[in-house]
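User: Thanks for the earlier help. One more: Signal peptidase I. Can you show the sequence and predicted structure together?

Assistant: Of course, both are below.
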Amino acid sequence: MAARKSDWIDWIKTIIITVIVIVLIRMFIAVPIVVEGPSMLPTLENNDRLIVDKISLIFQNPDRFDVVIFHATEKKDYIKRVIGLPGETIEYKNDQLFVDGELVEEPYLQEVKQNLDPNATFTTDFTLEDIPGGSMTVPDGHVFVLGDNRKNSTDSRHLGFIPLEQIVGIARFSYWPIMNLGTID
């Protein structure tokens, strides 16, 4: 028995609605991405697959230590960790992070730093005045970002401050490889 015309129309409607829902989810809620390069080691590795939360940026700006994806160029997105928020002073001195003059621990780097040669530094000393577009504080509407792999990362030390409107989303969940399944800290 041949399929009725109404059955075909129902199938076409279902496909169109499904495509629209998927497009809306990817545009406004969440999107999968693939990590490219070593700049976020040890937290994220090359080819890790993540789910990026886009919707929370509608309600609030990223927090310190959120891992964000942003438009670095028209064709390239980067993934880095938010270190400095608008109005803050950021300084690295003796391999330690100071925000507004106060020492701030970076627990996601503890293991790497413990494995370093005692005479080596993981993050070279700098102040915000040393970076492109340098100023005393992170400008309003911007954040200061660093890769977790401080020796091999193109980040705010090279790019300058990142405008909040260039941030695509916050990396929330790793789903591949399966051994890295879980939330991103």
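User: Great, one quick takeaway?

Assistant: The first strand starts at residue 30 and ends at 34.
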